[in-house]
# Entry
Amino acid sequence: MVVLVLAVARDRATLALSTRTDEKVRYPLLSKSIHPVPGSAADRVEQALQFLEGRWKLLILFRLFGGQVQRFSELERSIPAISQKMLIQQLRQMEADGIVRRIVHHQVPPKVEYSLTAWGQALCPALDALLGWAETRPAEKSGSAETVEVS
# Structure
């Protein structure tokens, strides 16, 4: 029993002293990074797309495009599949990101309206361009990917 305890203690000490190969040679392991290089175009595009991340954000945006001002209840009725909690969360995220403006009217019953900020409205041409790009997709052939054979 004592020998087993000593062996386990020795193995734990060995594990604690061992380091990764990249730490031993003193250079960072760049090939394992899953994130694009900071400041690169891919990084900036990824950051921009994070503003639109979320199942319901695009639907909310399209309801508010064109300078429309909608009450919370109108948005809730226009997107019937969304829960009240999820709509509140998505609107708060978009408000924190500066895409949506929340207007609170202090009255009884309370009245809250939502509209797009100028920056949020500027998304419309970008999404139209994305839609145009998607519509130019070539017709799908027998394979899903284009293959080129070189002899």
The helical segments are 2-17, 21-24, 41-50, 57-64, 72-78, 84-96, 118-121, 123-135.
